[in-house]
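Why does this matter for the project? Reviewers at the last site visit asked to see concrete outputs rather than summary tables. In response, this paragraph embeds two records directly. Each consists of the residue sequence and, immediately after it, the corresponding structure tokens. Nothing has been edited or filtered.
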Amino acid sequence: MKKFPLHWQILLALILGILYGSFLGEYSGYVDWMGDVFLRALKMIIIPLILSSIISGVTGIGTAENLGRLGLKTLVYYISTSLLAIVTGLMFVNLLKPGVGADLGLSRQVGELGLVQQSFGQILINIIPTNIFEAFSQASMLSIIFFAILFGFFINLASEKSRTFLTTFFDATFEVMMKITMFIIRFAPFGVFGIVAFQVSQSESIGVLAQSMGIYMLTVFLGLSVHSMITLPLITRFIGHVNPLKHFKAVTTPLLTAFSTSSSSATLPLTIQAVENKSGVSNKISSFTLPLGATINMDGTALYECVAAMFIAQAYGIELSFIQQAIVVITALLASIGAAGIPMAGLVMISVILTAVGLPLEGLGLILAVDRILDMFRTATNVWSDTCGAVVIAKSEGESLRV
């Protein structure tokens, strides 16, 4: 018998949670523990996962010699497009405000965000930890991400013996952490059931919940559409001097594969093949830019993480200041470096952002049910950005393309 897909399990858990909370709300305490256990398990893996994933991603760039002209162009493109994607998502979530005014049973008292009392300059200074182990214990995510990027960069500058050992160690650690993560995610339906049942039992209107989730999905769709159909084609056309429509037709197969599998890593062989054989990019460019892009270039994921964090803040009635939204943008950009190219990887990354800005992880229960369908769209956006980057960089290197 065919296995019941996880995303359908989560959707079923959401429906059952709504029904349980609506009709048996007074007994929600009997199932609330499932949500607590699931969230505690997520919190347990956040720090080791983000540390190993970012270090593994940065060391994957290669030795310092690789960070020459080609490497610099690639990193500038990836950082720029991810930042543009996040800002696009931030614009739409502030415009549509999917969580504002929604009575989702989330109005419980939330502690004052630590970022409120700090200036932007002080926040940037505090990114550098005085004690990294203290940063680990306090889950200071920006400090941890900064340390991971720094550590990964200097691994590439170490002697060959040390570089090989540490790269292997953190790659292996990341692989183990992903296995633990996927094991925990298998229990997501139970966690969603417990979280949603409790939240609905505290809510007065199920219709508002459905309406808010619909607007939230629309916000993500609009952000991804603008970035993939306007921003990236404009970059491809006017910076890369490449016909974006012809290039899109050339990479249709990997885009459809990315959409159906929700995995940019699994799509990578098809992406390389299409970019080389149909768009005409040389193997020298594609073999460097595309594997690196599948690791650290997550435009769609970064946009989604930003929108999701803002939506959860709005649902909890938390007004984020400009500085706090800037921290969401910075954290989403840095966390996207460590987002693995596998289904539901963004779920863990959004946990990092929520922790960084002090938002409650319980808000994950709101977005888990629709995560799978959004994952398909954001993964396709990730791969589309990778391919656009490959042709833009190839053109800047003087290559003659077929698109």
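We now turn to the second protein, recorded in exactly the same manner.
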Amino acid sequence: MGPKNKELHRIATTAIIYNSDGKYLLIQRSKSKKAFPGKWTVPGGGLNIDDYINTPKNQDGGWYNALEKTLRREVKEEVNLGIGKTEYLLDITFMRPDGTPVLVLSYYTPYVSGEVKLDEDSIDYKWATLAEAKTTDLIDGIYEEIEMVEKKLKSNS
């Protein structure tokens, strides 16, 4: 049984960050996390009103690029990195165990600056090639997303 209001979703975003060595940043979730404890994933998190509420509105009273601000904030908070241009990859929807529908928008972006420093939600990180990612205990679907990014980057170069 879903929520009463079928239009309300939690919105989250993830970043597949790649570097000039052709590697992707993977982070290991804390073993105390409710969802996917100890599994490996990519940085990301939820859209928060604070990401845009105190910024200038456009002339119609809305805000542009709130999701990108969220993604940049989450990457900075979780792994302390600066990222480049964000490119849309795909979206995923799922139901959380508490019945909340979640929409995740997945992006890929180049590493630009900073040294990885993890927040309390993660316990380890590594820069991995596609082959190394395949042998990592990733949350379902993350490997396939990285594989898609690898194909896009190879076809662009």
